[in-house]
Design brief:
The protein is mainly alpha-helical. The protein is built from four helices and two strands. The protein has two domains: 34 residues, no CATH class; 48 residues, no CATH class.
């Protein structure tokens, strides 16, 4: 993500074909890079499905949740997560 104080110990980081090692957090955000949480972030009034598809509306949120070991049944039931 480019958070201050964290640097790769070796190698390069690419998004598509763009090397992002030296980009600031703001420059990375403009490219669509964001933080990924262990569990979906709890924003009042937005469903987990809506949050997971903000950038890529055609992505499958169920497969994303399964990929990180979370149950789609628990997170995609349509209810909003309240803070």
């Amino acid at each position: 993500m480019g958070c201050e104080g964290y640097f790769p110990s070796s190698g390069d980081i690419f998004l598509d074909s763009t090397r992002v090692n030296d980009l600031s957090i703001h420059e990375r955000a403009r490219l669509g890079i964001t933080m990924a949480w262990q569990e979906p972030v709890r924003f009042e009034g937005i469903t987990v499905k809506d949050y997971l598809t903000l950038r890529h509306t055609t992505s499958d949120p169920a497969s994303v949740l399964e990929l990180v070991g979370l149950s789609p049944d628990l997170y995609l039931s349509g209810w909003s997560i309240n803070a």
